[in-house]
Task: structure prediction
Amino acid sequence: MWQLTRIELYKIFKKPRTYIAFAAIGLIILLIQLAMYADGETYLEFMLQNINAAFDIEGKKLNGFFVFYLILHTLLVHVPLLICLVAGDAVAGEAAMGTLRLLVAKPISRTRLLLSKFIASSIYTLLLLTFMAVLGLLGSVALFGVSDLMVQKSDMFILLDKSDVLWRYAAAYGFAALSMMTVASLAFLFSVFADNAIGPIIGAMSVVIVATILTTMDIPVFNALKPFLFTNHMLNWKGFFDRPVDVREVLKSALVLLAHIVLFVSLAIAFFRKKDVLS
Amino acid sequence: MSFIIDVNGLTKQFGELTAVDGLSFSVAKGHVYGFLGQNGAGKSTTIRMLLTLIRPTAGSISILGQELTHHRKAILQQVGAIIEKPDLYTYLTALENIGILSRLSGVRLSKADLLQHLERVGLGERAASKVKTFSQGMKQRLGIACALAHNPQLLILDEPTNGLDPQGIADVRNLILQLSREEGKTVFVSSHLLSEIEVVADSMLIIDRGKKVAEGKVAELLHPSETLVLLDTADNAATKTLLAQTQWQHFLQEAAEGILLQMHRDEVPALNRFLVENGVAVFSLRAKHSLEDYFLSLTTPNQHVAAYTD
Result:
């Protein structure tokens, strides 16, 4: 399996398209860091305008941890779209290129072939997140230094001691990885049904966008749907920045995401095993 | 005789369309076996079923003495193939393509071995070039090199001379003959051109609209002194069964207009006598064209029926 996965990774990293996501993430992170460096205090003033009259918050509010939180908050909504570029291309791209028939005619079971492709897509996803974490966290800490983290919630501000922050980022990284793999598995499922890469990329992106809108709209008829929408659970990485962390809630969301991954990949395998390769 | 491929009653339906209809044939070891039919006749569908890309609706396939669905992995390790077009990873080099595809076939070759395979098809100097810079002919040659890299016993080549210039076509023909004669490989090669099959194949199968039209040794099927006879009787199915016991059984097909037989022109009176003696009510018996004309008519759209019913 590892041999197959290595071949898949080799193919992924030989494609120019693969690096679009790295370039986009790198650019956004640098832009946010530059913007914060140039005008971060104004942003903070605006954010804190309601509580500045009542509280006097001391210390370096604009620090590396704060900027990285801001980066995660901004990027983890958009990274799924970039992940779809690779995961949606995994099978459909091969079908479009005509190489899927070469692969399926090889002495490899279709299940192993598909699993190796999914593992390779997941490794790509993890690398993208790691790139984001390293550039975002290290870059921000280098530019802005380290201090206590101030997190804005819907109805409160939470102050976290700087010594209490790193483990939260590590846990949030793990949770975000699960969220992104859910998106990857959805794009992957669509990829099995299509003979061109555009369809599954746009299809998966559309599902993520529609589900995200349903998640964010506070309308009673949609609220009943929310527990079943994976996008509703994807943003629960923020739960690690609560005090205390609601472990039960975060774990529940993680399990819902995991169940989605298993469901999407199982459906992809079940369909692919029976698919007539006509491309 | 040992058979490398043994197909029985192979059928594939796509909804209402029957792409392959009860096809049966056997390919002898070490032979070059031609698979002839016009575009859309069902050749590629059959080849895709041989390579497990498509699941048959009915019928069985044995390759190398083993049933394909139950021994897929072991069989495909011994098979090299080009399926329709030689589509490869265009963003990778020729060397990367052949390296990846041979590894997927279960073989890890050294760079020197891979280069040798590329040199065999005249691509040694382009090993480091990306495939997107290749012409159609070069891709076709690379496809053949990739199909051969893991040293398979059976080669399945779907229209391998498509897109090649005359020199390229000659090279592929020579390679096919060399693989069969010198290396003992079995080659199953499809084409829509009789002239392609005629020069390389020992035996051949002709299909039309998913059904077998003829199967046999090329030299016998294309015997120039033989004539195609169209016979129409009161009960064509029963007549066909009766003729299957005779010396005319080697080419005997039931067509929409009657029964087609191939025989020497001098034998036609004997056939007539045989039918009368056996009480067959004959409406018509016409000797018109050679079998070769019939095959050519198959590859020329709109002349299909006219060529042997005029």
Q: What stands out?
A: Strands of chain A lie at 149-152, 157-160. The mean pLDDT of chain A is 85. The first strand of chain A starts at residue 149 and ends at 152.
